[in-house]
């Protein structure tokens, strides 16, 4: 699993110590974006939807797309598509359609978000249509809680056999030790705690050494009856 360490990381000397890592730069605070592209293996550009939702702000998705565009010229950089935290499936699908219609070049290098309160049917649809899909904790699903684990089991039962690159948003510590074969994840753990536990470099080494399994082997959960009916209708 690739570990994308969230920024900003201050002071700058600490960020420079992490040269060669993978980084996540949020649109809500992009001060480190140039430096991360100079020293990082790869960069994930986050759309800042969580900050927008938490602060109750109105998103400027046109501005986000224009900010993302030049950085996507780097071959190992990719972006999270615009999404609505706690939004409906229809709202989030409309944003994907909007990005495709108005910023197709950005759409090509971006990944949609499946929120855990959304249907398993939508997750399957996204995995059939995109090479990379992000997973976001939402609604009643809080990382580390039993229902979060059960929902994650349901998700991977449903997409077992697909080749989709699955990315976990803001829950790297939880999935790094779990049974789910995520390809990548991000966290702001280093940005918040680098001055603890011996410093940023040993912390990153410990985090990056954790790897998820190569494939999904567990099959302990089942789809709900609503999900089953929706899948039948979709076929």
Question: Could you give the topology of this structure?
Answer:
Layout: E1 2-6, H1 12-17, E2 22-26, H2 33-39, E3 42-46, H3 49-55, H4 61-71, E4 77-80, H5 89-102, H6 104-108, E5 110-111, E6 113-115, H7 120-129, E7 132-136, H8 146-159, E8 165-169, H9 172-176, E9 184-187, H10 189-193, H11 200-208, H12 225-234
Parallel strand pairs: 1-2, 1-9, 2-3, 3-4, 4-5, 6-7, 7-8, 8-9
Helix pairs in contact: 7-8
CATH T-level topology: TIM Barrel
C-alpha Rg, in Å? 18 Å
Largest sheet: 9 strands, parallel
H-E order:
EHEHEHHEHHEEHEHEHEHHH
- Unreliable stretches: 222-228
Gap between N and C termini: 33 Å
Count of discrete alpha- or pi-helical segments spanning 4 or more residues: 12
Count of structural domains? 1
Q: What's the CATH architecture name?
A: Alpha-Beta Barrel
Mean pLDDT: 92
How many β-strand runs?
9
Gross morphology is globular
For the largest sheet, list the strands in their spatial order: 5-4-3-2-1-9-8-7-6
Structural class: alpha/beta
Beta-strand content estimate: 15-25%
Helix content range of the residues, please? 40-55%
Provide the CATH top-level class.
Alpha Beta
Plain-language structure description:
This protein is of the alpha/beta class and 235 residues long. The chain has a single domain (2-234), classed as TIM Barrel (Alpha-Beta Barrel). Helices cover 44% and strands 16% of the residues. The chain has twelve helices and nine strands. The chain has helices at 12-17, 33-39, 49-55, 61-71, 89-102, 104-108, 120-129, 146-159, 172-176, 189-193, 200-208, 225-234; strands at residues 2-6, 22-26, 42-46, 77-80, 110-111, 113-115, 132-136, 165-169, 184-187. Strands 5-4-3-2-1-9-8-7-6 form a nine-stranded parallel beta sheet. Strand 6 (113-115), helix 7 and strand 7 form a beta-alpha-beta unit. It is globular, with a radius of gyration of 18 Å.
